[in-house]
Every structure is written in C-alpha cells, then in structure tokens.
Design brief:
Elements lengths: L4 E5 L10 E6 L2 E12 L4 E10 L10 E6 L2 H15 L13
Antiparallel strand pairs: 1-2, 2-3, 3-4, 4-5
C-alpha cells in the first residue's frame, strides 16, 4: 500500500513550522499529515507529525489518526498500514471502508 501513496506539501516550501501535506492514493485524497511543535514554556520543541484518515471530509470527523511521528514520510507509512487493515481487497484509489 505505502508504495502507492504520494505525499504532497500543500504550502510553499518557505512556510516553516506547522506545515501540512495531503496524502493521495491514485489521485484520491486519503489523508492529511500535519506538523506540530510542543510549547516548552519559552520556545517550541522539535517537530512531530500527526496523520489523519478522514474519508468523509467533514471537519473534525477523522476515523483514525496517529501522532508523534518523526517525519512526514513516517506518518504517511502509518496511514498506509491503517489503510491496508481496513480495505485489503479494494482497488487502488477506492477509499470505501469495509462493511
């Protein structure tokens, strides 16, 4: 699954901190990766990445998420494993959940 997923940054490369990426499978949006930084009291800590799978596209309606990844690619890999678990027999790009 992960080999078919594509990670596309959705802002300019000049934007740093709190970046966002779309994850697509055969051109279909299947997830989003977001960069986060914990507040350490006087400054922000290093980046970590959260990935969410929200096939409904409704705000705040993610069916699954995974936090604390070291890189956007690691977050995308976690999404690929999740998608493998919920749709093993569906063709590429078909984001329907299993009954």
């Amino acid at each position: 699954m992960t080999a078919r997923l594509v990670l596309n940054r959705i802002e300019s490369q000049t934007v740093t901190g709190w970046a966002r990426w779309h994850v697509t499978d055969a051109g279909v949006l299947v997830g989003i990766v977001v960069e986060d930084h914990d507040w350490l009291g006087t400054t922000h800590g290093p980046a970590s990445y959260t990935v969410a799978h929200n096939p409904t596209a409704a705000p705040w309606a993610a069916l699954w998420r995974s936090e604390g990844h070291a890189t956007p690619k690691a977050a995308m890999t976690a999404l690929g494993k999740h998608l493998d678990d919920i749709r093993p027999q569906l063709p590429p790009g078909d984001d329907r959940r299993q009954p």
